[in-house]
Design brief:
Elements lengths: L4 E3 L14 E3 H17 L8 H8 L3 H4 L1 H20 L5 H21 L4 H15 L1 H13 L2 H32 L13 H10 L12 H19 L3 H20 L13 H32 L3 H29 L1 H22 L4 H27 L7 H29 L16 H25 L3
Antiparallel strand pairs: 1-2
Length: 466
C-alpha cells in the first residue's frame, strides 16, 4: 500500500540512532525532482552545441569533446566522494555546499567564455558541484524513506533524470541556435531556490568522526580520468598508466585505515553483480542513444533540431512510465520490473533494426519502448542495489553505483564509435533493410539486443528471488 508520507527509520550507522525525521512525499518529492532535472541536464545540454564551440575556438572534435568529458569525469568521481562524505558530514551541509559550487562554476563559465581552457575548468568545477545532487538525493531516499516507498520515489527520480537527459539536446540546440551557447552555463541558477527547502527539511545530523582518504580519492580520480582519456584518444600509454593507478588504488584501500571505498563492498556478491549488470545495461543504452542521432543524420540527413524532436516523445514517455515502474517495483518486486524493462528494450531494438532506413518517425516510435524500458530498469536496479547495503554503506555504495553508470556511458559511446569508424557491421543482413547507408545502423541494434540479454542474465544470477 502506498502512503503520502514517509517516516524514516531511526538514523543508523553514521549518525545518532535516536534521531528521526518525517518527510511528506507530496511536498518533498517535487523539490527532489526539480533539482535532479537541473543536476542531470548538464550531462547532455552542451552536446549539440559542440560544433558551434569548435567553430568559435577553432578546435578539432577530439578537443571540443572535453566540454562534455570534463563534466562527466568530475561528476562521476564527485558522486563517490559525496557519498563517502555523507557518512561523516550532515546531508544538509553537503548538499548546500555542492549546489553552491555548481552555481558559482556556472557563473564563472559564462563570465570566462573568452578562454577555452577556462571554459573547460568551469565545466569540471560544474561537475564537481552537480555531483552532489544525484549522489545525495539517493542517500536521502535510502536513509530517510521507508522501503515500501522507495520504489515509487526511485521511479519518479529516474524518469525525471531520463527526461532531463532526453530534453537536454532540445534545450541546448534551441538556445545555441537562437541565442549563444554560453547561456547554457546559466541554466543551473534555477537550483538556488531549492537550497532553502533542503536546509529546512533535512535534520541537523551529528557527524561521525572520520577522515577522507585523500590519496585513495586522487588515485581513483586519476586512474578513471586517464581511462576516459584513453577512450577518447586511444594512445596505449593512457591505458597502461590508468590500469597501474587503479591497481595501486586497489592495493591502497586494503592497507588504509579508513579507505575511500571499503574493500568489504567488493565482497558483497549481490551488490557487485547488481553494479556489473548496471554497467552492461547502461553501457548498451548509452551506445544506443549515441548511435541514433548519427543514424538520423547519416541515413535521413536530419538537422540537429529535427533530431531533438525525434528523441523528444521518448523522453516525455519516460516521465510517465518511470513512476509506473516504481509503483510496480513496490507491488510486484524489482526483478519483475527489470524483466519487463528488458523485454521492452529488446523489442525496441528489434524494431529499430527492422525499420532502419524507413521514415524517421517509425524510429521515434521504437524509441518510446527504449526510453520506457530503460526507465523501468534504472528504477528497479537502483532499488535492488540499495537493498543490499547496510545503512552505513549507503553513501559510498550508491555513489559507486552512480560512478559506474557514468563510466558506462563513456565506454558505450567509445565502443560504438570504434564500430562506426571501422564499419565492422556494414553489410546486408535483414531483408526489410534495402538502403545501403542503413545496413550498419540496422545490424548494430541486434548486437545491442544480445548484450542487453547478457546484462539481464547477470542481474538474474543475483536477484531472481527479489
Amino acid at each position: 500500500m502506498q502512503s503520502n508520507s514517509a517516516s524514516a527509520a531511526p538514523l543508523e550507522g553514521a549518525f545518532s540512532e535516536t534521531q528521526t525525521v518525517s518527510f511528506d512525499l507530496k511536498k518533498t518529492v517535487p523539490w527532489i525532482l526539480f533539482v535532479i532535472f537541473f543536476g542531470v541536464l548538464n550531462e547532455t545540454v552542451f552536446n549539440v552545441s559542440t560544433p558551434k564551440i569548435a567553430e568559435q575556438y577553432a578546435l578539432q572534435p577530439s578537443g571540443v569533446s572535453w566540454v562534455v568529458t570534463s563534466f562527466i569525469l568530475t561528476f562521476g568521481i564527485g558522486s563517490v566522494i559525496y557519498g563517502k562524505l555523507s557518512d561523516m558530514i550532515s546531508l544538509k551541509k553537503l548538499i548546500t555546499i555542492g549546489m553552491l559550487i555548481y552555481n558559482v562554476a556556472s557563473l564563472l563559465g559564462f563570465a570566462l567564455q573568452a578562454s577555452y581552457p577556462l571554459v573547460i575548468a568551469a565545466r569540471a568545477l560544474q561537475g564537481a558541484g552537480a555531483a552532489a545532487i544525484p549522489a545525495l538525493i539517493m542517500v536521502i531516499i535510502v536513509r530517510y524513506f521507508r522501503v515500501e516507498d522507495r520504489g515509487k520515489v526511485f521511479g519518479m527520480l529516474n524518469s525525471t533524470a531520463a527526461f532531463s537527459v532526453g530534453v537536454g539536446p532540445v534545450i541546448g540546440g534551441f538556445i545555441s541556435s537562437r541565442l549563444h551557447w554560453s547561456l547554457l552555463f546559466l541554466l543551473p541558477l534555477f537550483t538556488l531556490i531549492a537550497i532553502a527547502f533542503f536546509r529546512r527539511v533535512l535534520p541537523d545530523e551529528a557527524p561521525k568522526p572520520g577522515k577522507v582518504d585523500i590519496p585513495g580519492a586522487v588515485l581513483l580520480a586519476l586512474g578513471l580520468g586517464l581511462l576516459i582519456l584513453y577512450l577518447t584518444d586511444t594512445r596505449p600509454y593512457y591505458l597502461i598508466v590508468s590500469l597501474a593507478l587503479l591497481l595501486w588504488f586497489g592495493l591502497h584501500i586494503r592497507r588504509a585505515e579508513e579507505p575511500f571505498i571499503d574493500p568489504s563492498l567488493f565482497a558483497k556478491r549481490k551488490f557487485i553483480r547488481g553494479v556489473l549488470a548496471g554497467f552492461i545495461l547502461f553501457c548498451t543504452v548509452m551506445g544506443i542513444m549515441f548511435v541514433i542521432p548519427l543514424m538520423l543524420n547519416g541515413v535521413h540527413g536530419l538537422s540537429t533540431g529535427a533530431i531533438g524532436w525525434i528523441l523528444f516523445p521518448g523522453a516525455i514517455s519516460a516521465v510517465v512510465f518511470g513512476t509506473v515502474g516504481g509503483t510496480l517495483a513496490d507491488r510486484r518486486g524489482n526483478p519483475f520490473v527489470v524483466y519487463v524493462g528488458l523485454g521492452l528494450l529488446t523489442a525496441s531494438l528489434v524494431l529499430m533494426s527492422a525499420l532502419a532506413g524507413q521514415t524517421p518517425w517509425l524510429t521515434s516510435g521504437a524509441l518510446l519502448l527504449t526510453y520506457v524500458g530503460f526507465s523501468f530498469i534504472q528504477t528497479a536496479l537502483a532499488n535492488s542495489v540499495s537493498q543490499t547495503l547496510a545503512p552505513e554503506e549507503t553513501g559510498v555504495g550508491m555513489g559507486l553505483f552512480n560512478l559506474v553508470g557514468f563510466l558506462s556511458g563513456a565506454v558505450g559511446t567509445a565502443l560504438v564509435g570504434k564500430v562506426l569508424d571501422k564499419r565492422l557491421l556494414d553489410f546486408s543482413l535483414l531483408p526489410t533493410v534495402t538502403l545501403p547507408s542503413a545496413f550498419l545502423y540496422s545490424n548494430l541494434p541486434l548486437v545491442f539486443a544480445v548484450v542487453i540479454l547478457l546484462g539481464g542474465a547477470v542481474y538474474t544470477s543475483a536477484y531472481r528471488r527479489g
